[in-house]
Amino acid sequence: MQEYDKLNEIISCLKSQLATALCDYEKVLEERNDAKRMGNLCGRENARLKSQVSDLNRQVQREEEVTSSDDVSAAKIISRHLVTFRDIEEIQLKNQKLLTVIKDLSQQHEEMEKKLSTEITTKFEKEIVNLSVQLENLQKKRVQQSELLETIIRQRDMYRVLLTSQGFQKSSLLGPADQSTTMLQNTPFSPDPQLKEAKSAMAQLQTEFNNYKKEKAENERILNETIDQMRTDLSDFRIENTKLSSQIEFYNERIKILHSNAEMYKKEIASLTDKSKQNSELIAKHQKSVNSLRQDLMKAQEKFPGQM
């Protein structure tokens, strides 16, 4: 019984570690969303201010300077042909071009964010479902083993009582049985709260995804309101694309961390499986003890046939 209690303590400790890991996973999701919102806000504001100062210094330009092909770059072409202007008619044409570019880049940005968020959410929803199923199966197996162990202990105690009635010493037979029965009665077999926590984590993940869609809709509304202010600011979208690339790298790092956490969960589940096997071996030992007591009882019946 001491070995069985130790196994229960180890299983409880591992479940506590699993709950902590799930909490860490939720914190990582919150940090990802917070970092994404702050990155979008700071990146847009910083790029807008920098490009505004740069473009205002060269906006009115009547003559274009001739440069060599080696000096031609995307930023210089944008500044030369889209930012600067010679008259009102030209700036109107450039505004139309900028609106077209803004719509294209906005659509690309939206598709990239939607695809990335959908892939991440779907992947970790599957991970949570798989872990929840495995935890539920282990919990059911543990309850079954506990019930089987309790039944075996009752049988052992019954045989010991029968042997005691045949003249064996009660203290040598019932002492460990009373102790094991008392320990079994004092051992709580309450439902595992980790399953509920896993389901709650999955529901929370769905809620966070819905909140993300609402926030994205709000960001789109803000983007539409600021289009007029960004007509002379095409370089801001180049900076935005660079920022998106860095965000993708950031998400990839986060995904690696979450992969590592998932591997840790799998190792913990494997450890729980090993502990269950040890419990099965302990049950086999008790069954062997019951068989031995049954043989002793049969011998006692043969020895005292008139008293049975």
UniProtKB/TrEMBL annotation:
<dbReference type="GO" id="GO:0006406">
    <property type="term" value="P:mRNA export from nucleus"/>
</dbReference>
<dbReference type="Pfam" id="PF25785">
    <property type="entry name" value="TPR"/>
</dbReference>
<protein>
    <submittedName>
        <fullName>Nucleoprotein TPR</fullName>
    </submittedName>
</protein>
<feature type="coiled-coil region">
    <location>
        <begin position="195"/>
        <end position="303"/>
    </location>
</feature>
<dbReference type="InterPro" id="IPR057974">
    <property type="entry name" value="NUA/TPR/MLP1-2-like_dom"/>
</dbReference>
<feature type="domain" description="NUA/TPR/MLP1-2-like">
    <location>
        <begin position="63"/>
        <end position="114"/>
    </location>
</feature>
<dbReference type="GO" id="GO:1901673">
    <property type="term" value="P:regulation of mitotic spindle assembly"/>
</dbReference>
<dbReference type="GO" id="GO:0017056">
    <property type="term" value="F:structural constituent of nuclear pore"/>
</dbReference>
<keyword id="KW-0175">Coiled coil</keyword>
<keyword id="KW-0539">Nucleus</keyword>
<dbReference type="GO" id="GO:0005643">
    <property type="term" value="C:nuclear pore"/>
</dbReference>
<feature type="coiled-coil region">
    <location>
        <begin position="46"/>
        <end position="155"/>
    </location>
</feature>
